[in-house]
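Researcher: For the annotation table, I need structure tokens for TFIIE beta domain-containing protein. Please keep the output clean. Sequence:
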Amino acid sequence: MDASKSQLLLKRVVNVKAIVTPLWKDEVQQQLQAQINQIDQQLQQIDMEGQRAISAVQKQSLQPPGPQTLQQIENIQGQVNQKKSELLEQKNQSLQNLQQVQFLELDQEVNQFQMESFFHVEPGDNLINKLNVEVVLRDGVVEEIRGDI
């Protein structure tokens, strides 16, 4: 086999950056607000489901409730509180992100997400250069590809 013809197909992570524009800011703020609203709905739903579960346990138990019933109610409340805590953490993160987006300057570049791509490497290639590739978007349109494709 001819060594000059040898190639290898590898996978790399490509950083996708966005240039901050008024349209980009509006879209990101709307997405974050939608996430916050969805979390609020989930919080209300968890409260209602928890209350229904507790009511069901109370209806099935003796009056006054025994230690086993009280333990069941406590377990349900603990699960509800844990889920609410997780959702509140997500909501706080979304609120922080929303605040950060508001302070971004126009034409600033921000990391938006990562994706994977495949590339060929052969003897003599600089692997480090081939691994460092970025795609820059302006309002969803590729404006620039940086790096050794």
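Researcher: And a one-line annotation?
Model: The chain has a mean pLDDT of 92.
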